Amino acid sequence: MPTISVNRDALFAALGQKYTDDEFQTLCFEFGLELDEVTTEKQMLMKEQGEQAGAGTSEEILYRIDIPANRYDLLCLEGLVSGILVFQGKISPPNYTLRKAEDHYALHLTPATAQIRPYAVAAVLKGLHFTKQSYESFIDLQDKLHQNICRKRTLVAIGTHDLDTIEGPFVYDALPPKDIKFKALNQPKEHTAPELMELYSNHAQLKQYLGIIRDSPVYPIIKDKNGVILSMPPIINGDHSKITLNTKNVFIECTATDLTKAIVVLDTMVCMFSQYCSNKFEVQQCKVYAPDGTYELYPKLEHRQEVINVEKANNYIGINEGGERLASLLSRMCLQTRLEGDSLLVSVPPSRHDVIHACDLYEDIAIAYGYNNIPRRAARVATAGAQAALSKLTEQLRAVCALAGYTEALTFTLCSREDIGSKLGRDLAAEPAVHVANPKTLEFQVVRTTLLPGLLKTLAANRGLPLPVRLFELSDVVLRDDSAECGAVNARRLCALHAGRAAGFQLVHGLLDRVLAQLRVPWARAAGDTGYRLRPAQDPAYFPGRCAEILLDDKVIGKIGVIHPTVLANFELTNPCSAVELDIEPFV
């Protein structure tokens, strides 16, 4: 859930009313938001960077407000104020108008762009009157959208340019990196694209975006009629067309790998800031030409019609209100609605791209009605709640292990490929492991198939503890299973580890006997008998001749043995260790 920081005084001025912190928190709750924190810029910097960071920063009060992830229209002060005022009935929802496209604002795509970012949309805002506050909000909204719907610029990258410093029509092209040279934003001189990639490799904000295009044979660029490069999306804009407080006309371009997301982003940008245009809420359309010569007009700012049934809405929410009342509640949420018979005809504006289904409309009715005002009612189906049998067994076995002198560890479910493969002496290809498609770090590449590596790493991180060290974990592993609906299944396991001056095999064996005795499982003296027994086995993770399989009614449910010295060395351990690991689900 994204969080926005707004200046309290500026917010109250825009709302036309002052509130106490508690009153504003109540208003946020009624509107479906949450006031997360009341702070200052100085306090925020001190919390993030230490005592010295707050020197010279503002002491103005900031409200940090949690915004639902799909409410892109509330990610800036302008959208938040407009939404609240409409909710309070103080203003009507904005009515956006489109100004006819002009050819000299057209954006032409070349065929080369299909290799990297195949889509683009554009718009123009004219006659803007920026203040310092609205200018900062304009920039901040772009950042919020980049982190949210744009997925850190991988899906969409936004570029904003001072229209008076450039000349259309514009071209969206893709060129080899060595052929690109321009003066990037706030840079003193021109750089080639490879030089910029090197320059920004240590930049606190921009380095995270370099990988999006770094390995591509071509880099995307936007340039004007005279060849002036406006931006190299998704990395950086050009310095020539940067917007300032004095900017009056803005050209907005969005390049994308997802056209739908680009349309949502462009609509959000122009809907929020067209209120500062000389003709309020008017947006200039742009012709965007595809490589084949056809064109589309953007932004579209389309109003979509949805129809919902009054009775069904009441039943879903648990209220009993007339159609006119439900229509007024939806209108308070910027969704202009009228009643026709027993149906509600809802007009969804271009600022509300979060409304994609009837259930979204039911949710908005419930918010406007007030969650606390919905009457409580008994469940229509009588049920008896109880703890799941597997969870109950897990809690009981935790107590057994703790009473036996073992300390519980909770380790990561994700691990590296080496942890379950080469470090244990096993072939990773033979392991039924679920692999993470795009791991962020080498530590989290696969989902664990055994609990043993986690305990060994925990032991390695606590080498300073006096011996012996006894650890256990009762948790899930994930195993690939093509017959399962999602391709994998969870398995609840118990793993215990003993480390000391000697291997201590008899101690983990004793724990196994204690656990199974508590489960009322007898010892099976021979194959075919009911109960559990051990059978010699070979596993590269365990010392040869000192490893056994645990069988329950002649079915393998786990292993026990002395850890192989090579495995200990792989996990940077020097003391002998013994371990037992078994599946507890057969005992449920």
From TrEMBL:
EC number: 6.1.1.20
Entry cofactors: Mg(2+)
Residue span, B5 domain: 301-376
InterPro entries recorded: aa-tRNA-synth_II/BPL/LPL, B3/B4_tRNA-bd, DNA-bd_dom_put_sf, Phe-tRNA-ligase_IIc_bsu, Phe-tRNA-synth_IIc_bsu_arc_euk, Phe-tRNA_synthase-like_B3/B4, PheRS_beta_core, PhetRS_B1
Pfam families (UniProt xref): B3_4 (PF03483), B5 (PF03484), PhetRS_B1 (PF18262), tRNA_synthFbeta (PF17759)
Keywords, comma-separated and alphabetical: Aminoacyl-tRNA synthetase, ATP-binding, Cytoplasm, Ligase, Magnesium, Metal-binding, Nucleotide-binding, Protein biosynthesis
Compartments it resides in: Cytoplasm
Family: Belongs to the phenylalanyl-tRNA synthetase beta subunit family. Type 2 subfamily.
Record NCBIfam families: pheT_arch
Name of this protein: Phenylalanine--tRNA ligase beta subunit
